[in-house]
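Record copied across here:
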Amino acid sequence: MKHGRDYRRSHLGPESWAKDYDAKLFSPGSFDALLWQREQQLLDRILQQHVPGRDSYLDFACGTGRVLAHVEPHFRQAVGLDISETMLAVAKQRVRTTALVEGDATRDPMVLGGQQFDFITAFRFFLNAQPSLREEAMGFIASALKNEQSRLLFNVHGNRYSTRMLVAAKAGLTREQFASMSVSECIELAARHGLEVVEWYGIGSYDKALLRLMPLSAWRWAERVAALPKHLSVYLYFVCRRGRR
């Protein structure tokens, strides 16, 4: 994602990145499919430990509904919001009772009618978004949390201080566009919008680009027996609430 461009456009239209999104990233046996198995376990853990309210749930930038379909059964009401008609068409095949809304909350904050939620997720969004869009999105999400017991879970799939640094070094030499965020940047982003990180988690010690250098079996072994501390994890997950006054 080039931050000189508007990330909103990357998933619009039938020939955009939205086309065959799941096949590109989550094909059976792929790195991202294996990561998703671990993310599902983390989602279940977070729901159990951090989310007492189970009335309403929003998946912001829900895409094809991967996270949405997993979390939906835990809530009385669920909403998926995305600007991509193409991705929402896929999500529609996955979910059962979720209301899917096509719209851009950063430009139309009333796209959901001012509804607020007990739990909000935002996956694979903030790293790709340009800095101004990150701020606009976090501002909307903060306003959509119902109360102090409500929680936001957002992730960043590229920790700057992880084995992703090796990929960043290569990108610097080849002048490729490369995005990363640090733990402190994520916490500060939330804080600028009145949110407090109550817990954060890390998954994955070895960036998937390294799979080009080692077989998947070696990656599985390294993840199992040579896992790094969470500060060095590639994938970061932040549980947030409204800041205490």
